[in-house]
Design brief:
Distance between the termini: 71 Å
Shape: elongated
Structural class: alpha+beta
Number of strands: 6
Strand content: 5-15%
C-alpha cells in the first residue's frame, strides 16, 4: 500500500508541488491573539501584496478618557483628515504652537546678582527659523526653512545675518533642502 501526499494552498486549495509553496507567517492580527500562524500559499496568490511603509501612529483620546487608543493608519488616510487644507500646514501650526507654548512656560534663568538671563529662543518659529545657532536643527525648523526659504532669507538679510544657500552642501544637509 502506498501513501500519496498532496500539497495544497491554504488560501485557494489549489494543488502544488511542495517546493512551489511559500510560507506566509501571520505575526500580528487585530482579531487573533494566538499567533503566529503559518499559511502555505502559492507565490502568485500573494504577488499583489505590498508592505505599507508610510504609516502614521496616532493616540486618540476619547472625550473623558485618560488613556488613548493607538491607531496606525496610512499616510494617505492621515492626510485626508485635513479635508481641503494641506496636512503639512496643519501639523506645522500645531508644532509651532507647542514650541511657543513651551517657550512661554519656561521660566527665565537667574543670572548673577539676581538679574534675569536670556529666555530660550524657539528656532521652530518663523520669527527665528534659520538663524545661526549651535543647537540641533529640529524637524519643525527644517520644515519651516523648506516651506518659507525666501521669507526667512529676507528676514536674515534684514537682520544682517547669513542667508541659507540651498546650493551649499552643508546648508542642504543641515536643513534637508533637496
Amino acid at each position: 500500500m502506498a501513501v500519496k501526499t498532496v500539497h495544497v494552498s491554504d488560501l485557494s486549495g489549489r494543488e502544488a508541488e511542495e517546493q512551489d509553496l511559500v510560507r506566509l507567517v501571520v505575526v500580528e492580527h487585530p482579531e487573533y491573539k494566538e499567533l503566529p500562524a503559518t499559511l502555505e500559499v502559492l507565490p502568485d496568490e500573494v504577488a499583489g501584496l505590498q508592505s505599507v511603509e508610510r504609516l502614521v501612529q496616532l493616540d486618540y483620546y476619547a472625550p473623558g478618557e485618560r488613556r488613548p487608543q493607538r491607531f496606525t493608519i496610512t499616510l494617505e488616510q492621515f492626510n485626508a483628515l485635513a479635508k481641503d487644507e494641506d496636512m503639512g500646514a496643519v501639523l506645522l501650526r500645531a508644532i509651532t504652537a507647542a514650541h511657543e507654548q513651551r517657550g512661554r512656560a519656561a521660566s527665565p534663568t537667574r543670572g548673577r546678582g539676581g538679574t534675569t538671563g536670556r529666555t530660550k529662543v524657539t528656532y521652530a518659529s518663523l520669527e527665528h527659523a534659520g538663524e545661526p545657532h549651535r543647537g540641533r536643527i529640529t524637524d519643525a525648523e527644517k520644515h519651516l526653512v523648506r516651506e518659507h526659504l525666501d521669507e526667512i532669507n529676507q528676514r536674515l538679510r534684514e537682520q544682517g545675518l547669513r542667508e541659507i544657500d540651498p546650493r551649499d552642501p552643508a546648508m542642504r544637509e543641515r536643513y534637508g533642502l533637496g
